[in-house]
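Handoff note, outgoing to incoming analyst
You'll be picking up this chain. Sequence as last confirmed:
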Amino acid sequence: MDEIKTVDDLLKAKNVTPEEYECLKDFIETAKANERKIREYACRMRSNFDRLSQALELIEERMLTLNKALQDLLDASETFQLRLMSSDKFYRE
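Most recent structure output, in case you need it:
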């Protein structure tokens, strides 16, 4: 049963007779319609997952850029504070 992946595969594996097929026709058609929907939704899900992955990579890149800019700003503000500090507070023996 490992090779059964679709409704048609199941029908072939179970050797459904034409009479059985006719009795189960509505059920089989509903199952096939659901199978098509599942394939469509799985395709959409993969596409959405790929888009989400790309968006997360972009966010990561921008966060790293922002982190670098903030670090540079902090370094510059420390330098600026040292320059504003009076010499008697800056230099001690």
